[in-house]
Amino acid sequence: MKVTLKVWRQKNRNTPGGFKTYTSPELNGNMSFLEMLDVVNEELATRGEEPIAFDHDCREGICGTCSLVIDGKPHGPHKGIATCQTYMRSFKDGDEIVVEPFRAKAFPLIKDLVCDRKAFDRIQQAGGFITVRTGAAPDANSIPVPKPDADLAMDAAQCIGCGACVAACKNASAMLFVAAKISHLGLMPQGQPERYKRAKAMVDQMDEEGFGACTVTGSCEAVCPKEISLDFIARMNRDYGVALLKGDPKAVKGGGAG
Amino acid sequence: MATLNSNVPSGPLAEKWEHHKFYTKLINPANKRKYKIIVVGAGLAGASASATLAELGYEVHNFVFHDSPRRAHSVAAQGGINAAKNYQNDGDSVHRLFYDTIKGGDFRAREANVHRLAEVSVNIIDQCAAQGVPFAREYGGLLDNRSFGGAQVSRTFYARGQTGQQLLLGAYSALNRNIANGGVKSYTHSEMLDLVVVDGHAKGIIVRNLQTGEITRHNGDAVVLATGGYGNVYNLSTYARGANVTASWRAYKRGACFGNPCYTQIHPTCIPVSGDYQSKLTLMSESLRNDGRVWVPKRKEDCKKAPQDIAEGDRDYYLERMYSAFGNLAPRDIASRAAKTVCDEGRGVGDTGLGVYLDFSAAIARLGESKVRERYGNLFSMYQEITNENAYQTPMRIYPAVHYTMGGLWVDYNLMSNVPGLFVLGEANFSDHGANRLGASALMQGLSDGYFVLPATISGYLSGQNPGKRPATDTGSFKEAEENVQSMTKRLLGNKGKRTPDSFHKELGKLMWEHCGMARTAAGLEKGIKAISNLREAYWKEVNVMGESTDWNQSLERAGRIADFIELGELMCRDALMREESCGGHFREEYQYTPDDPETKQGLVNPGDVKRRDDQFAFVAGWEYAGAPDKTPILNKEPLVYEEVKMSTRSYK
What is the rounded CA–CA span in Å between residue B488 and residue B208? Predict the structure, then answer.
């Protein structure tokens, strides 16, 4: 099989980009979409054209590095999988495939199909953790976690941080990502002491990064390679609301033990 | 010649670590903040070390080539993490985990390091649970375990099929907390391209910013490499495409010895290769061997039949037949070699004949499909995505693939290399897995090194360095190292060849798999060394790298890494040629048990099992760079001294 690719090419953030069309060499249905791009790139490089820049790493759907909007859909045609696990057998001989980067104000473009998703790290740094010093942990079985809670926390914790939710959203909202992070820790007993403080800090940082608001259209859930549920957004909103009602914790008056 | 002193403390094995921690010099809290530590990598080892060192009060600078510290390939580990908690009351203990690991490594690991690993394992689980890692639970809320290859107890903790991801997110959250509070400065899209050695001590690194191409110098009082393994030297492997040896290799070229480079793990349960375009092999977790049965047809003629049409009596469940005590849970090296053997006999399945069945029909009949789905659902759907086959209805086809490298930079008991001030953690070092790693032990080692070992040992080195006196970045060694990086970049981009870097990587991978793969011979390795050294020369004549140095340039990144892989490949072949014995993952065809050997007659081993030669090869090979890629490297030896364990024939029958 052969396909025609319409690919977004852009040298860098400050140079305007545009679509370029390439015809693929002969392909095999068992190739992954990224392997198809490898083959196209080898051909480009062999004839002296600069290869298409695209992000990828583990190629088994877990690192969250690969992105791409394929025919208008982040991570391509299938539900519940990332671009790297999309195979060419999902396309037909002669198809024209449009390939674009994830587009969002908070994900500035680096080159071609690569964008910068560091905003996600900064949201996590704002509060996506449980404060526990190395060596200070009690025996693991001293904190029982009901299996349904652990399972639900795991459903949220599976998020691979790829940013497809943002790319799919008409408002470029990061609510699904942030909700997954807040829910994972908020569902575990270990996460209770910082639960509301965490929700407030992460949501505030999300807003500061320039992500849009959520209007609950659900496109994020539809494209999420880990099928993270919209329910987590409701959970986050509740925790955020409680955090607002509680207000900031009272400042402790100074003074030491002398 | 380098000196390889293991610095293993004296005293009884089980007390060494406690004693050593007590006798290691401490640094007072006011002085700690005057020491700056560079950590390269943020997988399990790098992230946990960075976070913990910052908590202790050191100034930590962390560098990753990824866009985020959360992307390191630790994220892809599926099955689990071992710990000697004995929560199952099935007879586990620190000593048993220690013994299983040292035996699993075919008595080629350093005894004291392995014991420490087993001791620390229990603290890791506590630490991760406290961070909120959502481990699998029983209905009572306590932690669940499963069994894994090479062990007869259930000591593996897991989070569905995504244990590595969850542990990494735990370490990443600890790292984030310390980035937020200023303890760690994080540099992303920053690739280390050289080590700076000042007066014999590691005091800095040279880094390329992958977005802007800018080259910068960074100084520190110590440098920690946690940069992972080098399995991508084979091109096709279960590693992430970006995983590379560059940080380790550039340190090797600055004098750090490379330990046991030929020890490679070939994992038995991967999806077979389907074509030449392939970029990556996908692992199916070893945990599948808990419930899946491995078989091939007894007769060659049956290989092209549909598996359902082959009668039960015509199937050869060869692992159960050959290793009755461990059966399908035989260690990885043994299971891989057995798969190769049956395929070499012409009994392999699938289009290429390089595959064996992993069959769940018995488990589905025993447990029901829903239970199997609960345990392995994500793996079955991953298999279906890749192969378009439903493994609930037809057996999976699997074949061994390169998965892990036990070798790595040589380190002493303190995890310090022979270059003072250079520490190496996780898969990047050589120390804990000997010639074969057991399943669920990589995560354990990465976190052990990062959370518990390095933070306790590094003060021993730093206490000998004057606080606040690290060399400035405008000194000669920094300048020379930066020029070295600049000139390599210029050379790669200026080369006017016709071939792409990736075409060389493919060629290297094929040479390595053929000559330094699952079965090795002296003649094959000699051929490999010659072919790879020719490839190295051809690379610098024929490679063509597109793009510019001051821009995001993935071709340039890869070109530098592939140049290093080519040199490493040659060293691996040399190491494999030197090691005239078989052990663990290193199988030399000349050294295997025959039906006439007494061990075979006693029923300890099967004919064809690996044959060690403890009288001559009970040592760690530490290879030292001789100053140029075409000069033969120098072999240094660290004898393996076993104080408590007796090196014995490794039997899984």
Answer: 12
d(CA A154, nearest CA chain B) in Å? 6
Nearest to B134 among A80, A127, A157 (CB): A157
What is the value of pTM for the model shown?
0.97
B548 near A CB under 8 A: no
On the CB side of B559, CA atoms within 13 Å amount to 27
- Classify residue B397: in a domain, yes or no: yes
By residue range, what is the domain housing residue B345?
A: 267-402
Last residue of a domain, one of B350, B381, B402: B402
CATH number of the domain that residue B300 is part of: 3.90.700.10
Chain A, nearest residue to B173 by Cα? A129
Residues of A in contact with B45 (CB under 8 A): none
Q: What average pLDDT does range B419-436 have in this prediction? A: 97
Residues of B marked active site are found at 332
My answer on whether B385 and B480 are in the same domain is: no
Q: Indicate the residue among B338, B370, B402 that finishes a domain.
A: B402
Closest CA to B193 of B640, B564, B641, B507: B564
Q: In the CATH scheme, what architecture does the domain A118-246 have?
A: Orthogonal Bundle (1.10)
* Measured distance CA(B635)–CA(B216) in Å, rounded: 33
The total number of structural domains in chain B stands at 2
What residues does B634 pair with on adjacent strands? B624
- d(CA B603, CA B613) in angstroms, rounded, equals 19
Class of domain A4-111: alpha beta
Q: pLDDT-based confidence at A249, cuts 50/70/90?
A: confident
| Domain residue ranges of chain A, discontinuous segments joined by + | 4-111, 118-246
Bridge pairing between strands B264-270 and B396-405: antiparallel
Residue B25's Cβ-count burial label (10 Å; 0-12, 13-18, 19+) is: exposed
> ipTM score here?
0.97
- pLDDT tens digits, one per residue of A151-199: 999 999 999 999 999 999 999 999 999 999 999 999 999 999 999 999 9
Q: What's chain A's average pLDDT? A: 96
